[in-house]
Design brief:
By secondary structure, the protein is mainly alpha-helical. It is built from eight helices and no strands. The protein has a domain of 150 residues.
Length: 246
Amino acid sequence: MQEELWFTALLNHAFAKPVNALLQSLPPAFHPANPESPINNSVSMEIMVVAFLILLFLAIRSTLRVEKPSGLQHLAEMFHEFITNQSEEIIGPHSEKFTPFLLSLFAFILFANLIGLIPTLESPTATAAVPLGCAVVAFVYYNLHGLKEQGPIKFAGHFMGPVLWLAPLILPIEIISTFARVMSLSIRLYANMFAGDAVTAAFFTLIPIGIPVIFLLLHVGVSFLQAYIFTLLTTIYLQGVVAHEH
């Protein structure tokens, strides 16, 4: 059984009754195994990451300056410009409307990856359900925008292939490959973060001084890389469904 983190215990102490009542009203598959602790570590870490990001965005918003921007504002503008430029290069004109979602996705995954470096906390992305949830959200988002931009008929035509007589063969392949994106996005993020946490923990146990620092730095690099790859692939998938031929 997974050891309960201090923040998880705090949330369960404060909100166990209403959360348990809510879950009990859902189908049996959603009922908690332990009614006294219905909130698990991955959910509590997600709550902490979201709360931190909200406070961070509020702090950036409250200190916005044109004449003398702060270092935090410069950093936020750098990430915003990076995501915007990447979207424009991949998707094309009018891609700026996707920047808020892509930037939020990148920030959430990045900080969810990095929070595991703080003692007594862990990365929620090292639990399979969290990367899967991010992948499902990205999947629904870009498909909804594809339907909106292309219309139902043209959007469905993407699954039919270039010629109609090949549609019976192409359609199942396209459907499988499309849903496989959810699996590839989630497995890639989960496997890398789970492996990174496991290796770092192992070296801290065997050699508590010196060597683990190298793996901590590697964990930071992997955290940024996986957040970037997840956002990049989502941007590419968006381009495939919203781009118009000129």
